[in-house]
Amino acid sequence: MAADFESCEMFEVWRKTHLMFVERLIIRLASDVPGFNSEMLANELYVLQEEMPVNHDDPEVAKRSAIALDFLGDITGAVESGIQESLERRKGF
Fold this sequence. Notes:
By secondary structure, the protein is mainly alpha-helical. Helix content is about 85%, strand content about 0%. The protein contains three helices and no strands. It has helices at about 1-30, 40-50, 60-90. Helix 1 packs parallel to helix 3 and helix 2 packs antiparallel against helix 3 (about 60-90). The mean pLDDT is about 85.
């Protein structure tokens, strides 16, 4: 039981670290790369979410797909946050 809790806790640390990385990466790309189209990336993530299969005959596959969809939503949120922060930084200059 304790090992399960530790595994879940480690997964949360991993997940949050990755989301922070994605957000910072988007900020740098949007700020430093002239041709980077952050809105196009966000739109592609929305399409990916819509196309992600969630319903499946196998309950385990359906469960994993739902978790993946939730994580993809978190990544999309990190991208949106990074885009917003980069826009705010541009206004400050």
